[in-house]
Specification:
By secondary structure, the protein is α/β, with parallel strands linked by helices. 34% of the residues lie in helices and 21% in strands. The two termini are 35 Å apart. It binds flavin-adenine dinucleotide and uridine-5'-diphosphate (UDP).
């Protein structure tokens, strides 16, 4: 064990939460040590070039989107952007469907052309009237009725969360839009783009922006707290782990990713399915809502990155039970899980020299922009408290 060293801020986790805070504090002249137990920076947003030469998102697809001009302006200091209209499909009853549900989906369902007025009338007849949907089942059946709920949502959600939609917050399925027009974009946010050279390059530039950031990979919290004394700790790991699981582990959902690559020659046979050469499937992401299929989705990220390469890689996502020691990918967005987290939140609020920031430390099903917003706000709070060292 090396001798104890001194730093101003010790930051656990090199995902968006940790890196944004490190960058902001270092820009103000503070010394920051960032550690991560993984062998790379970027957290779950990490991307890399695989053996087939394809840029892949190692921990599941990360579609950057936001309504915040402030966050776009902040990240744009470290990256240019590749604009993407993220589009996906759903595969059920042996065929591909337009998804999220829109007028094209309705025409596919009818098997003939239609229009907005007919679609609106049909939905009115299908909808279950619920004024204030309290869970994910109610939110979907109140928008599209039972048949489309069962076709697209029920099985997918059961596989993804191993919980019934009625036992999950309304916001889980409620974040999937319903459109009366033919807008097929998966997401609703104004700004939708990927970092032009990938997320890992963005993180590299962020961490190199000021001389004050030192990064140590392959180091976990237990080791870091022995190696560095600090003025203030920023923790972006799991809050239950920080407190040694005092109230027992919180519930999480985990994932197994299975990648498969295809050469240009192999892809020639898929051209009819993919609709264009060089691809395996017709969209960046295809969801598989049927319970008979063990995975939830297949992602072919080359559709979104726009990378010019002959080969392609697809990744199947298999949801699985989380066990201690595994990656806790998803906090569970459900009332009982929030209640369990509250006990840890109360403990966390008593730690005056520690900031708990990020998806795992605050146990929130947050997108990247929300985590970046949270980290920027926490950095400002710390700078108000400790002042700036910059001359
Ligand atoms: P993380 O990225 O999880 O980073 C935390 C880091 O802390 C990790 O690198 C971890 O190794 C490290 N760490 C944890 N504990 C310790 C410890 N004890 N010691 C040392 N290091 C530790 N968001 C979007 O906006 N768009 C998307 O399309 C999208 N898709 C997603 C798909 C999947 C499959 C998942 C799981 C998430 C997705 N997200 C998406 C959410 C996004 O990943 C998060 O919002 C973001 O990564 C959160 O950043 P973070 O820094 O809080 O956490
Ligand atoms: N969902 C679904 N069917 C789909 C897509 C999503 O039932 O085809 C539900 C599912 O519960 C999922 C949630 O909507 O967890 C949010 O979907 P999203 O694609 O945003 O999930 P993420 O990318 O966060 O895994």
């Amino acid at each position: 064990m090396q001798a104890e060293a001194q730093t101003d801020f010790l930051i656990i986790g090199a995902g968006f939460a940790g890196c944004v805070i490190a960058e902001r504090l270092a820009a103000a002249g503070w010394k920051c040590v960032v550690v991560d137990r993984r062998a790379h920076v970027g957290g779950n947003a990490y991307d890399e070039t695989d053996a087939a030469g394809v840029l892949v998102h190692r921990y599941g697809p990360h579609y950057f989107r936001t309504n915040s001009q402030r966050i776009v302006a902040y990240l744009s200091r470290f990256t240019d952007w590749h604009a993407v209209a993220y589009t996906i499909k759903s595969f059920a009853r042996g065929r591909y469907w337009s998804f999220p549900i829109n007028l094209n989906t309705f025409e596919e369902y009818l098997g003939r052309p239609s229009g907005e007025a007919e679609f609106a009338g049909w939905l009115d007849a299908q909808r279950v009237p619920i004024d204030h949907p309290r869970n994910s089942e109610e939110v979907v059946i109140s928008q599209v009725g039972r048949e489309l709920y069962e076709l697209f949502f029920e099985g997918y959600t059961l596989k993804q969360w191993q919980r019934h939609p009625r036992d999950l917050d309304a916001a889980v399925c409620g974040r999937i839009p319903l459109r009366m027009n033919r807008d097929e974009r998966y997401l609703t946010e104004e700004f939708q783009a990927l970092p032009e050279r990938g997320y890992t390059a963005l993180f590299g530039r962020m961490l190199e922006a000021s001389a004050g950031v030192e990064v140590h990979l392959g180091v976990d919290f237990a080791e870091a707290r022995k190696r560095w004394r600090c003025r203030h700790l920023v923790f972006s790991g799991a809050v239950d782990e920080y407190f040694d699981y005092r109230f027992g582990p919180l519930p999480y959902r985990s994932l197994r990713f299975e990648a498969e690559s295809f050469s240009a020659g192999q892809l020639a046979q898929r051209a009819a399915v993919a609709g264009k050469p060089g691809f395996w499937q017709p969209a960046m992401q295809v969801n598989y809502p049927e319970l008979a299929v063990p995975f939830t989705r297949i992602v072919e990220i080359k559709h979104a990155t726009g990378q010019q390469v002959d080969a392609t890689t697809i990744v199947r996502e298999f949801p699985k039970e989380w066990q201690r020691g595994e990656e806790p990918y998803y906090p569970i967005p459900a009332p009982d899980a929030h209640a369990a987290f509250q006990r840890y939140a109360t403990l966390a609020s008593t730690e005056s020299q520690v900031s708990f920031v990020g998806r795992l430390a605050t146990y929130r099903y947050y997108n990247m922009d929300q985590v970046i917003g949270m980290a920027l706000a926490e950095a400002e709070r710390l700078l108000r408290r400790y002042g700036s060292q910059a001359t």
